[in-house]
Design goal:
Distance between the termini: 60 Å
Oligomer: single chain
Number of strands: 6
Length: about 375
Amino acid sequence: MSTKDVQTNKLLVLCVDRDNDIGEKSNIKTPVVGRKDCLYAASELALSDPEEADANAIFAAVKQFDELVEKGYLCDIAVVAGSSKGGFEADKTIRIQVKKITSNSTAEGVVLVSDGVEDEMVIPVIQNLVEVVSVKRVVVKHSKSLEETYAVLGRYLKMLVYERRYSRIALGVPGIFLLLSSVAFFFGQERIMSFIALGLIGGTFLIRGFDLDKWVELLPRLKPSGYLKLFSSMASLLIIATSFFTAFAAVSGTEAFQSVQINANTIWIHGAFLLGKFIQESLLILWIGIGVYFAGAVLVNYLKGSIWILSNSVGIIILALLYFPVLQFSEILMGSGSTATLISFLLVGFAIFFLIVTIVYTYIQSRKKSKGNGYQKFER
């Protein structure tokens, strides 16, 4: 245990369960305050899962509390828990519970008891509420024999099978792969098994990387503006993907593309033409897709009554102003456009853009002044 020499009127022995095993496994609500209640919580958690390390940590906190009382310290003891989701949610919950305890206590220092590095990560979260003067880490002792090693491995395998947050990845993804592979094998399509495997792995990485599963869980709680934003975003992505596919189909049918396929070195000859062709074929549908996104944002901000509606409206105008310069640029790449025409489009577009931004800025400033005058009248 690491200690600091400080003068305190009262100490709080605090046991932290960051992933809320005490709530998930024994249905005990935290914070738990007092020696008797903490012993009860530890006993319930140990009975629900005798191998749970957090139960040992709570018992260790009670032992630490008794030792400090014997030495003459005034002490309180409490158990707080976070969330099974971890991260921000867990730290936020722990901070709220510690704040609740310290507001009803005269403790000026905390003796933190934890069963690992993850629980000790909350030290910065609670440090500005009450000073952490000591940290005690509880290490559960295991036999070094082979049988105990198998027992520990069995426990973690059990977690992978029965705990939902782990089983979805450890069992769900391989289960889908095996099921689809059996269907492919039945129809004599063994070659697509590798595509199935890569697709599942990529999809899993994508879902976990962007927390798409949490987005899906939030769907039932979305407001109408949230559904509108989701629809416009998905529609925009589909239209943009369609524009790229359409452009590639058009480019792949040209003689220049076939020439590059035969001899890759000709890319230096036909590359500009192919790029211009791709831009020209995708431009209209691509602009529609981006416009759908901005239009959805305008409607969402209109429903919310947000001033950001002006920003999204300006985005639609900029999109329209850039259409003809980009189209002219694609024609230049294909060898049929005019640089003078491109510059003319850009200058006209810049002038219109400058005018619009000036009008919007003037409107926002006048709105701020009117609000300020309203506040001054109210104060008088």
